[in-house]
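Need Putative oxidoreductase's 3D structure for a figure. Predict it.
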Amino acid sequence: MKKNFYLRSALSVILLMHSVISVFSGDVNNFGRLYLDTIGFRPFGLYLAWAVKLIHLFSVFLIWSDRYIKAVSICNMFILILGIYFIHWQNGWYVVGGGTNGIEFNVLLICCFLQLIFTKQEEKCCS
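Structure prediction for Putative oxidoreductase:
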């Protein structure tokens, strides 16, 4: 069994759902054009939105193949930190309950990626 099996499973489901659903629903295009472009990223908003979703999608496969774990984690943490700054910070801490759309979920995901970085990876080779 892979180290951090449950952590990898949870991150994979979250990243898959966050990327695949928004691609098929068209939300990724709306996020790029209707949000990112309007806050100063024009004309790159659409491309940035797609880059985020593709990073999430490819991260799933890299996490399970034990490749580029540090790079995957750093890229996703960077995206999550930018999400906190541009979207969630103004809404406070809570995602639900004491508020809505807050930073708590992003903070938890950042900690999960930190755990992946700092867990010693399995040896690849056998004698």
